[in-house]
Write a structure and sequence with these properties.
Radius of gyration: 16 Å
Largest sheet: 4 strands, antiparallel
Mean pLDDT: 91
Number of strands: 6
Strand order of the largest sheet: 2-5-1-6
Distance between the termini: 14 Å
Order of helices and strands: EHHEEEEHE
Strand content: 25-35%
Shape: globular
Number of helices: 3
C-alpha cells in the first residue's frame, strides 16, 4: 500500500537551528532516501517552495484569475513529501520516524494512506 509522508515545515523553527543542525537534516534526508531506495519502498519525492512563492488560480464565470497566495494563518506549511510503497501502516510509521524532521520540536511528518492514484 502507498503512503504519503508529508513534511510539515515551520521556517521559524528551521531558522532557529544552527548551521550544523540544518546540515544534519539534509544528511538525514539523504540517508533516508538511500534506505527506502535500497529496500524498494521508494516511489517518489518532492520538495516544495514556500507559500510566499505560490499563486492561487480561481475561475469565476469562466474567467481565470491568478492571485498571490495562499495566505495561511498557520506558521506551518507543506514543505514536501515522500511517496512510499510499503507492506503496512506500521512500516510507514517506522519510516516516517527515520526522517530527521520528526525529531525536531515544531516540525513533524504526517503519514497519510493513498486512496487513489492515476497515471503512474
Amino acid at each position: 500500500m502507498k503512503y504519503l509522508l508529508v513534511l510539515n515545515i515551520n521556517p521559524d523553527v528551521l531558522a532557529a537551528l544552527t548551521e550544523e543542525e540544518q546540515q544534519a537534516i539534509g544528511a538525514g534526508h539523504e540517508k533516508f532516501m538511500a534506505t527506502i531506495k535500497e529496500s524498494g519502498e521508494f516511489h517518489s519525492t518532492v520538495a516544495l517552495g514556500e507559500p510566499a512563492k505560490s499563486a492561487v488560480v480561481k475561475v469565476r464565470d469562466g474567467v481565470p484569475a491568478v492571485t498571490d497566495g495562499p495566505f495561511v494563518e498557520s506558521k506551518e506549511f507543506l514543505g514536501g513529501y515522500y511517496l512510499i510503497d510499503v507492506a503496512s501502516a506500521e512500516r510507514a510509521y517506522e519510516l516516517a520516524a527515520m526522517i530527521p524532521d520528526a525529531a525536531i520540536e515544531g516540525l513533524g511528518v504526517e503519514v497519510r494512506p493513498v486512496e487513489f492514484e492515476s497515471g503512474l
